[in-house]
Design brief:
Elements (H helix, E strand, L loop, with lengths): L7 H12 L7 H25 L5 H8 L3 E6 L10 E7 L4 E6 L5 H18 L5 E10 L2 E10 L2 H20 L16 H4 L2
Parallel strand pairs: 3-4
Antiparallel strand pairs: 1-2, 2-3, 4-5
Helix pairs in contact: 1-2, 2-3, 4-5
Length: 194
């Protein structure tokens, strides 16, 4: 998509054509999200080109999509896996962003905190905020609710306590207890409660 004289309309066409090469399970959900992305990126491209016709293609790309997706982090220094991946990293801030579906949960804030700690351990630079977005698709329309999360001392302590508890369970070979009531959104529901 690094064409000369690429504009929003051409980008829209290229991205709409690209959708049909994707392999997705839920076509309706994927199409609704893809259409939202197409609209956003094509509008941002036209806006960026309107600011200056002299931007290089790389400059335009970084202005249209000012973040890295599936940002790799080495979490070993904070007790995580060496290949964790944050949904997105916004380098200008710097800030980790996570996208979730379903209901808001405390674990999402704790995961964001874990990514922030991994980032800090890798780059020795503080990360005091994260960005948490909940995305839902209803009747073919995309709805999002995003907010800044302060990665303060309380969240950091809570994450480290949870991490220590999990590590202790692993060291002692203790299986975690099943909850009294399973969440219907749990990805392991069919495994634990067939």
């Amino acid at each position: 998509m690094y064409e000369e004289d690429l504009n929003g309309a051409r980008l829209r066409t290229l991205m709409e054509d690209e959708f049909y090469s994707l392999k997705v399970e839920d076509l309706t959900l994927a199409k609704a999200i893809w259409d939202r992305v197409v609209n956003t990126y094509s509008a941002e491209l036209d806006k960026a080109k309107g600011r200056s016709p002299y931007f290089s293609r790389d400059s335009l790309a970084s202005m249209v999509v000012p973040f890295s997706v599936e940002f790799p982090l080495d979490g070993t220094l904070v007790g995580l896996h060496n290949g964790v991946r944050a949904d997105a990293f916004i380098p200008h801030v710097p800030m980790i962003a996570e996208m979730k579906t379903g209901k808001p949960r405390r674990q999402h804030e704790l995961a964001l905190t874990g990514y922030a700690l991994a980032y800090e351990s890798m780059f020795e630079y503080p990360m005091d905020f994260g960005y948490l977005c909940y995305v839902q698709v209803k009747e073919g329309r995309v709805f999002d609710s995003c907010r800044l999360v302060q990665v303060g001392d309380y969240l950091r302590d809570e994450f480290l306590q949870m991490r220590d508890k999990v590590m202790e369970s692993i060291e002692n070979g203790v299986e975690p207890e099943k909850p009294k009531r399973c969440d219907q959104d749990c990805p392991f529901l069919k495994v634990c409660n067939p």
